[in-house]
Every structure is written in C-alpha cells, then in structure tokens.
Amino acid sequence: MLLPQTPPLHLTYCQNIHPGETWAEHYQALATKTLGVQRALGGSAPFGLGLRLSASAATELLESSALDQGRELFQKHNLYPFSINGFPFGKFHRGPVKADVYAPDWRSPQRLKYTLELGRALAAWLPEGCEGSISTVPGSYAAWIQSKEEELVMARNLGAVAADFARIEAQTGRFLHLGLEPEPDCFLETTGQTLAFFEGSLQEGAVPEIQRLHQVSAQRALDLLRRHIGVCFDTCHVALQYENLARALRAYRTAGIRISKIQLSAALRTPPTPEAAATLEHFRETTYLHQVKALRSDGTVLSWPDLPEGIAGFPATQGLEEVRVHFHVPLFVAPSAPLASTADALDDEFWSEVRSGICPHLEIETYTFDVLPKEIHPGDMVESIAQEYRWVLQKLNA
C-alpha cells in the first residue's frame, strides 16, 4: 500500500510466506490469501505486492500469457507489484531447504539468468512512476567462497544485472534495483562486511563488466552500479548481529550504498540459560537453517550454524550475555519467558530513519508461518499478516 508519508513509502508483505513454485500456485495465493489480507485491511486503496517467484515461475511468465493473466488480476483488484523476493531460486516450503536456499549463488549463470528474468517481469508490471526492487542472496554461503577470484565472478555477474537494469530503464522508463540481503553465516553477513565488498571487490569486478556491456566510462559504470545494485536491509538479520538498526542504515547512506528494500521482521532472543535451551527445543524443525548468535561479555559474537548445535552449545559456554536465533516470528507476537523477540530493536530511532525516506520500500517478511510451534502460532495466516500490517502502521504513525 502507498502510505501518506512525505517522502512516500510503499508497504507490502512478502509472498514467500505462501507455499508454491509454479506460476499457477503463486497466482492462486494472490487470488485467495492476498485478497483476503487486502479485505482485512479495508480493501479500497491501491494494495502493493511483494511477490515471490521461483526460477521456474519466472521463466514461465516470460514464455506464456501469464504476464497478462497477472496484469488482469492486478487491475481488477487494485493491486500493484513493486517488489520481488528473488532470494529462493527453487523449493522454499514443504521439505528441507537449509543451505540450499543460497544455491545457485552469484557465481552461477543460473542465478544471473533468474534475476534478469525477474527484472523483465517486474518491469512489465510496474506502475508508471514507481521504482521496482528485487532482493537476492548475499553473494553466497560464506563457506562456499574460497578465493578472491570467486568474489570477482560474483561481482561481474552483479555488474551484468546493473547493465541490464540500466538498459530496461533506458528503453521503458522503469527503474529497477537489486538488493543483496546480508544474512547470518553468509558471504555478506555484517554491515561492515557488506560495506567492504561494495567498496572493494564489487567495484573491481562489476565496473569493467558494465563498461564492456555499455561502452561507457569507468565513472559512468560506477554510477550505474550504485543506481541499480544495493542492499536489502532485513531487520531480523541485522539484529542477529547485535547491530543497531538506525546506525547500520546511516552507515550505508554515508557510503552512498542504496537501500533497495527494508524487510521488517524479528528474530528470537533468549538468555543463555539451560531453561532457554530447553524451550528452544520446540522450535527445532527440518526445513530452514536457524543460525544461532550469542553475544559475549567482551562484545564479540559466537556462532552456531543451526539450532540443534546452538541448543547443545550455548548453555555450556561461559561469558555469554544473550542468545539470538534466526527464526522469523511475527512482529506482534510476544513469546513467553524465557523467550522474547527482537521486535524491540525496531525502535523510535529506526522508525525515524524509515520516515526520513532512506528507502521507499517496506516489506513484512515472516516466511516461517507454517513451521511456527503451537506455543506462538497465531492461528489464521491472513489475520496474522493483517495484524503485522497493523503493528507496522501503528509504529509508523506514532
């Protein structure tokens, strides 16, 4: 939805909460669940969409009449797509995903092809005067990148995206940008790592690629890179690093790095006690990675790659102050002690930065709905999503 802010803000929820890999499944979710959320929120104003399209669905869109089918649905129900989650390439529900969610990574021509197809689909659907954002994997899973040359391969592929999005803008007037989404245990994890990549290897690999594809100067290529490649700022992921959200946003702004999209989400947090570890047993599940980050008393962060390792490790570790778990929980949910959420990290300072116009795209993202344990499960999906909207709107209007 378009919010009456100055500068304007677009708010949506991410469709990756809905299972489905084909266009038919994505369309069904839009025509049922999304319209239900729209009705729950009043149903009259234009309703923004944060789509999730798998690689197979993206290809299908460009090879059939599906683009027109989507456009007809959007026009009929006053919907407008302005963002796509291009992070999960393939299966994202109903079976193990774990680290496969990062594959293919940005070393792969498959990831490049998928992202370019998403760009063409979004450009075809974007309303006049509305920019489009696409989020993507943070380069790769950290353990998979072993050399500087692999970083440069990723950078060259990202340069090819910037070049293609620049071509789309020149030909259609539709402005698209891609946001790499820093995530625990990934190639881009912290704000500091992301700043270093954007100022180092990304420019080193992407600028010559843009020059090659567009026959422009190095400065013009750098300008196009900064215009079309940025960061998807996930508040859950930033909080997992024990970073201050507002300071992280300002660091990107100071460095001239575009915030492509802000994803509004919360992680679990607990004291580092055996009781908390026992309570976290209810959150064990086999679909997603739930990385665990513990804050030491000296300010450093200790990591475990998934929840089982974290549950086994942190109660026996001395000198910990807090534990946070990469398990997205609805923003409005207040887990029972000893658990809590990082929703309080979205504080007044953060909302002040959001209202300032640091990024026009806001997306609620709680894809874990189907694996939430009964202790905190909200019940009805449509009402849960609508309640997250109400929570965000209340914070924005405070």
Structural features, described:
The protein has helices spanning 23-40, 55-62, 66-77, 109-125, 148-172, 191-199, 201-214, 218-228, 235-240, 245-255, 274-280, 307-313, 348-355, 381-396; strands at residues 2-3, 9-13, 47-52, 79-85, 132-136, 176-180, 229-234, 259-264, 266-270, 292-296, 301-304, 320-329, 340-341, 361-364. The strands form two sheets. Strands 1-2-14-8-7-6-5-4-3 form a nine-stranded mixed β-sheet. Strands 11-10-12-9-13 form a five-stranded antiparallel β-sheet. The protein is an alpha/beta fold and 398 residues long. It is built from 14 helices and 14 strands.
**Could you please say which CATH topology applies here?**
TIM Barrel
Q: How is the largest sheet built, in terms of strand order? A: 1-2-14-8-7-6-5-4-3
Q: Indicate the structural class.
A: alpha/beta
CATH class group: Alpha Beta
Shape: globular
Would you list the SSEs in sequence order as H and E? EEHEHHEHEHEHHHEHHEEHEEHEEHEH
Helix-strand blueprint:
Blueprint: E1 2-3, E2 9-13, H1 23-40, E3 47-52, H2 55-62, H3 66-77, E4 79-85, H4 109-125, E5 132-136, H5 148-172, E6 176-180, H6 191-199, H7 201-214, H8 218-228, E7 229-234, H9 235-240, H10 245-255, E8 259-264, E9 266-270, H11 274-280, E10 292-296, E11 301-304, H12 307-313, E12 320-329, E13 340-341, H13 348-355, E14 361-364, H14 381-396
Parallel strand pairs: 2-14, 3-4, 4-5, 5-6, 6-7, 7-8, 8-14
Antiparallel strand pairs: 1-2, 9-12, 9-13, 10-11, 10-12
Helix pairs in contact: 1-3, 1-14, 2-4, 4-5, 5-7, 5-8, 7-8, 10-13
Compose a concise summary of this entry.
The protein is an alpha/beta fold. The protein is 42% helix and 18% strand. The mean pLDDT is 97.
